[in-house]
Each structure stands twice: as C-alpha cells, then as structure tokens.
Specification:
This protein is an alpha/beta fold and 784 residues long. The protein has 22 helices and 28 strands.
Length: 784
C-alpha cells in the first residue's frame, strides 16, 4: 500500500507534518515536492497551498484555485479515476463537507470508504456529513480503520489478477450460478427487485466488494450471510444501484439543450400549456434539478406562463428521500456556477439546498422502469447511464417506453429500436421521436401493473390478437374523446395513476412531493372527496356525491365525484377509481357561492399579509446569507489556526526536549562557560562558571561588566566586542589568584540561521588537572 495524507493547511505556513509523522512510523514519510512515482510502504504528505492528484500512476501537485478548500475531494476523485476498486478512502476529523463527494466517487468506482466515528473525532462535522450521505462503508475509530484495512488488502477483490471483468463474470456465471441465484432471491424477497436481467459484470464487481468488506472469499458463504441479514441486503441493494451523477454533468449537453433543443420544444407551447419531462434512474436528484434549472433559464420570464412538471424516479427509496430534500455538500461549487448558486440554491452552513422555486416543479417517486408503467404525454426523457446496467433483453422492454424526445448517456444507444428515433446530435446522444406507431412492450413487463382490457377471445391466436388490438384502439379513441378525468388510488389514498386531464381538480403544493390524494386535491373539494371515498370503502360499492363546488379562473363550477371500487383479475388487492365528472353550466348562487365570496375577501387579506411576510423573509434571508458566508470564512480560518496550533504545540514539545538536553549537556561537561548577547548581557551560564566568573544562573540578563572574575583579564569586554565584530575566535592564557593557568577561549555565537548574536566564553584548565569545575579543588569523576 501507498499512503497519501491530505490536510486543510494554511497556504502561507510551512507544515511540519512530515517530521511529526516520521516519528510515528517506520515507513519513510515524504512531503511531495514535484511529480512523484508512488512507492509501496511509503507515506506521502501534501505541502501547503497545493492539491495532490493521482494522474498516470504518479502523484502530481496542482495549485489551489477554489475559494473553499476541497483538496480532499479533488484527491479522492482523482484516486477513484486512477485506481478504481484498488482505491481506499479514509475521512478523518475536520470541519465542513470536504471529502463527501470524493468518497462517493471512490465507492462508485468500486473502492472502499471509511470515516472516523464522532466519539474519537476532534472535529466531527466532516466525517458526519460523509456518513449522512450514505457513501461510507464503515464508521470506526482510526485504530479500528487501520485494522480493517490491514485485513481487507489481502482479499482477492483487491489483490486480483489482471483478467478482464468479462472473464471473471463468466467464471461466476458458470461455477457459482446457484449461489448467485440465492443472492438474487434474497434481494427480490426483501427489496422487491429482480436483478437477474442486469449485467453480470456489474453485479459481480459489487457483490465481491461487499464480500471484501466482510472478509469473505466464497460466494456461498456470502449467500448464507445474506439469508437472514436485512441490513446487509439493504447495503448490497444500495451498492448495486449506485451510479455516477453530479450537477450539470457533461456541460456541452446542457449548452445544447438551452440553445437548440429546449427552444424547439417550447416553440409550440402556449400560455397555460404543460411541459413534462422524466428522469428515470435519478439517484440523488442532481440530474433532475440540473434539467429543471436549465428549463427555467431557457424560459426566463415565460416560466410563470407554463406548468412545468419534471418526474425523477429511482429504485432506491433512500435515494429518492435524498433527492426530495435537495440538500448537497459544498463541493457542488466546482460544478455549479456562482450565478446559479445564488439564483437557484440556498446556503445552509457547509451545504446547499435547492430553492423552493425549483423543488416545486420536481416530483420524485420510487419506480422500476422494467415493471412499472411509464409516464405519459412527455416532452423529454433524460435516461443517462441507466441502460448500460441492463441486459439486451431488458432493453427490449424499456426502450419502447421512451418513445419521446430522448437523451442517453455517452456509452448508450437505442440499439435495434432506431426506427423509433432520429439521432439529432451524436456527441450528446440526443434523439427525437419519429412519428411512427409505438411498439407494444412485452406483457411480462407490465404484469399486475396496468388495467386489463377484457376482450372476447377467438379460437385462433390471430383472431385473439386482432380482437384485442381492435378493442384497445376503440377504447383509446373513446377514452380520449369522452371519458372524464380521474385517478386510481389504493385504500391509503395514494395515487397510482392519473387518467385524463386532472390539473383542473388537482394541484401540487410547495414543499415535499406527495401523491396523497387529499393533499393534492383542490381545497374546496377535499371535504366532499373524503366523505365519498369513505362511503365507497365502507360499503365496498360505488359511491357518488353531486354538485361539489370548485373555483377556477374566477368562476365557480359544479362537479360530480364518483368512487368505484374494483380489483384486477388474479389479484386480491383492492383499488379505487375516483372520477371527476364536470356538470354543464356555472353554479347557481347559494350558500356555497356566498361562502366562496367571503373566502375570496379573506384570501385577499391573507395574500397581502403573505406578501409582506415574504418581503421580510427575503431581507432576513439576505442577512442570513451574509452571516453564513462570514461563518464559513471563520470556520475555514479556525481549522487552519487549529492545524497551526497543533504544529506549534509539537514544536514547543521539541523545544522543551532540546532545552532539557542542553541543560544536561552543559551540566555534565563541568567547564566554566558563559554566553552573552550582542549587548554583552549574560544569556546562559554553566554551574562550573560560578566560582570563576562569580556569575549565578539568576544573573542572566545582567551586563558582563557587573561581574569581577577570579582570573587576570582586564580587557574582557573589548575582546568580546572584537570577536562579535570580526567573527574571529580569540584565545589567551590567564591565571587565577592562586597562580593556576587556564586557556580562555572566546568564540562568536551563531544562530541556526547563521547569524551572529553574541559570544561564548570558555575556560579550560591547562595544568593537566583534568576537567575544571571552577572550584579550588577540582575533582575527577569516579572511574566505573
């Protein structure tokens, strides 16, 4: 293994991390200075004001350009691209959300991800944000993370040979088919999704990844482990569904949409028309919101004239919840321009949330594109990097559902269904719909998911097919021309299908998306609708209420509401069809009309008050944004100061150790030594200098001229100044009052920066009496 340590550092302050880590490990610790070929069992440290990237098998330094420090994200993302499943990301203590996007990239690439637990992290915000995102495989203390990595790197998933993915998948397919089938069965039972039609290479890689995390090498062992482990089944399910997504991925695509294709779609849209788009496999919602922002930017001031509805669907309920919340880490700043951040996002601490204006036009729901019915009357479908995970058999079920304007990922195509589409831009894989009949998807894809049309079957297959097509065509004409609007709901009042034009009766409100009928029906109909549904469920037969009043475009109209219970043949589940049947003419004046008049007056007052509140809210929001910006800057400064403080603390420890060493050294040599500064003030003395120079340790800071030494030297001060000025050493023989001879040596005092900052006085006994302690009876140390 090679270890790379990336920190949030003060860009203008040298780092001592390399020397500090060097004392804690036997491995070499190197601060990266230029492009470096990484060696195994070596620790590499990021220098200040630089970011480290992995490129072409080397560690490369690049300048720090972002205002917000995302050095960890940049390194992790480059690691994911360069090393794939051999990359391991560990996120430790820190503030902000740096590292979250990078861990996601590592996990998507098949690598392993760890985060420090809050109990041991000095600053828990950074690992906490990553854990909440769902892209962390394990949360441990640093010591436990080290232990896990030591075991994991010996797993075949990491140390596998150079054989291709398809070769490994083939071995898995033929040798372990039964174990793989048991894994798929566990997923289907708990999660309701059949993965047998997904590409085997992807499934193999993800299953092996989960096995590595649990230190398992046999597929049969993992299949048994899954059998009664709901938590691991959910984790495997999330791993199998994880995909690459980010805001405005492939910028050229969104440029093409804004300049060419969206204007073409909007050209035929008139006031009060509806623009509908669908993003299957939306994951955490970045693609949906990017498309919504692109549409709003294209429409400009016209945005209020059209009803915009963008549907985002995914198999994972956790992903859908994340998308609905619309909260993303600060790392999106490198994908979203400052202008868009200001216009379409709200800053919250170290995160951003999609503004309410954008969230209101986006609806998220769990859906399986293989088995669930598609959305209808669509203007655009963005299905990017979904088909690459599906087998050709599943393509036959899915692609006919996408017979609209279509966007695919760079590695995808419509395949054998090119007769349905025109490829209008090859680079960005943008297709338009050919005006041909849409082929009927395979019935297996919709079994139990759509209404059955009853037809009299002939004795031959040809007659049966013709009769079914005839009935379906006739029903289609009649439903479009005469059928009233309605919805299909279950007993929990959740809408499963919209029939006809329901926007006159239903409306989506600001806030989290919902399909609860009572929450999306227009308020004036809610009470009547609740009563008639209750009666239909209780009696298990059709119920009806008449002359319910609804107001639209300033006019009150009367409608009838009918609720019809039914079941699909072959199923025990009960459903309800709610029909909104509009009667002709306007409502006659009466109690309802009077009530609406009063309501209208009250509504105007509330509207005025609401506008004032919104104005105040905008001012508060502006003030809050300024405070958030200041808080973020203080947070960044605090983190850099904390790092600096830790280094200074370590330096203080080093200085204390060096000071202790120096004291012991001076005490042990038993020579009279006096150090003075450039002003000839005493800086330091040894114990042996006490009786020779009459200087005590407490005399530090006093001029050397204040003392009368016990040796015959009258020009000591002149000699010291000469040594300091000429930088030359001086030596002279002197005698004490008893006639003993000494060698007096004067040397310039040099700092570590090679500057002269005083002089050093040393006295050596030359009578052969051994080491001098400055007393009249110098003693030799005892021999050992």
């Amino acid at each position: 293994m090679t270890f790379v340590v990336v920190q949030h550092l003060d860009p203008h302050h040298a780092s001592k991390l390399a020397s500090l880590l060097g004392r804690a490990t036997a491995m070499p610790v190197i601060e990266i200075a230029k492009t470096t070929k990484p060696e195994p069992n070596t620790v590499y440290v990021q220098p200040p004001n630089k970011c480290v990237l992995v490129q072409d098998g080397a560690l490369v330094l690049v300048g720090r350009t972002q205002h917000v420090n995302v050095a960890i994200d940049q390194f992790f993302e480059s690691l994911a691209e360069a090393c794939g499943s051999r990359g391991i990301g560990v996120l430790l203590s820190g503030t902000g959300s740096d590292g979250t996007a990078g861990l996601r990239a590592i996990k998507v690439a098949g690598g392993l991800t760890f985060a420090q637990d809050e109990q041991t992290a000095k600053f828990a915000e950074m690992p906490r944000n990553a854990i909440r995102s769902g892209f962390v495989d394990a949360v441990r203390s640093p010591r436990e993370i080290a232990r896990e990595i030591r075991h994991i790197v010996e797993h075949p998933y990491i140390r596998r040979s150079a054989e291709s993915e398809s070769e490994r998948a083939a071995k898995l397919d033929y040798q372990k088919a039964d174990d793989l089938g048991r894994i798929f069965l566990s997923l289907k039972k708990q999660m309701g999704v059949d993965f047998t039609g997904y590409k085997l290479e992807t499934l193999n890689r993800r299953i092996q990844r989960r096995m590595a995390l649990h230190r398992m090498t046999k597929l049969s062992q993992y299949a048994r482990f899954l059998r009664n482990n709901k938590k691991e089944i959910e984790a495997l399910f999330d791993d199998l569904l994880i995909n690459v997504t980010r805001f405005f991925r492939d910028p050229s695509l969104f440029t093409a949409l804004r300049k060419r294709f969206l204007p073409a779609i909007l050209k035929n849209k008139h006031r009060q028309d509806e623009l509908r788009a669908w993003v299957p496999g939306c994951a955490t919602g970045e693609e949906v919101y990017s498309l919504a922002i692109c549409i709003l930017e294209t429409l400009g001031k016209r945005a209020s004239e059209l009803r915009i509805q963008i549907f985002g669907t995914d198999l994972s309920e956790a992903m859908i919840d994340h998308a609905r919340a619309g909260i993303y880490p600060g790392a999106i700043e490198k994908d979203v321009t400052p202008k868009r951040l200001k216009q379409f996002f709200e800053k919250r601490d170290s995160t951003y949330q999609i503004s309410r204006r954008v969230r209101e036009i986006c609806t998220f729901a769990r859906q399986n594109v293989i088995t669930d019915p598609p959305f209808s009357r669509l203007d655009l479908i963005s299905c990017r990097n979904v088909l690459i995970y599906l087998s050709p058999e599943l393509h036959k079920r899915c692609i006919p559902q996408f017979h609209h304007a279509l966007i695919l990922g760079p590695a995808e195509s419509v395949g054998m269904f090119d007769e349905l589409f025109n490829l209008v831009e090859k680079k960005n894989k943008i297709y338009t719909k050919k005006m041909v009949a849409t082929p009927r998807p395979e019935l297996a894809a919709y079994e139990g998911a759509r209404f059955a049309l009853t037809a009299v079957r002939s004795t031959t297959v040809e007659a049966a097919t013709f009769g079914e097509q005839l009935v379906r065509a006739a029903d289609h004409i009649m439903l479009n021309a005469y059928a009233p609007a309605g919805v299909v709901i279950d007993h929990d009042l959740r809408v499963h299908q919209f029939r006809g034009r329901t926007e006159f009766y239903l409306q989506h409100h600001p806030g989290p998306a919902t399909l609860n009928l009572l929450q999306i029906v227009r308020p004036s109909l809610a009470a009547d609708l609740r009563n008639v549904v209750r009666r239909a469920i209780k009696a298990n037969k059709p119920a009806r209420t008449e002359r319910s009043v609804i107001k639209h475009n300033g006019k009150a109209r009367e409608i009838n509401i009918q609720v019809v219970p039914f079941k699909i043949p072959g199923s025990d589940k009960s459903w309800l069809l709610v029909i909104f049947d509009e009667t002709t003419g306007e409502a006659k004046p009466g109690k309802a009309q009077q009530f609406l008049g009063k309501t209208e007056a009250t509504n105007e007052e509330l509207k005025s008050a609401n506008e004032e509140i919104e104005s105040s809210n905008e001012e508060l929001q502006s003030t809050n944004e300024e405070l958030e910006t200041a808080k973020e800057e203080l947070q960044s400064t605090n983190e850099e100061l904390t790092t600096l403080n830790e280094e200074l603390s370590n330096r203080n420890l080093e200085m204390m150790q060096m000071n202790s060493d120096l004291k012991n050294l001076l005490a042990s040599i038993q020579l009279p030594i006096v150090m003075v500064d450039n002003e000839l003030l005493v800086r330091r003395v040894t114990p042996a200098a006490r009786n020779v120079f009459n200087v005590l340790q407490s005399d530090v800071g006093r001029p050397i001229s204040d003392f009368k030494p016990n040796i015959d030297i009258l020009d000591l001060e002149e000699l010291l100044r000469e040594v300091i000025e000429t930088l030359a050493m001086r030596e002279r023989k002197v005698t004490d009052r008893e006639g003993r001879e000494y060698s007096l040596r004067l040397r310039p005092y040099r700092t570590t920066e090679n500057k002269i900052d005083g002089a050093v006085i040393t006295l050596v006994d030359i009578n052969g009496g051994g080491e001098l302690d400055g007393s009249k009876t110098a003693k030799r140390p005892k021999q050992i």
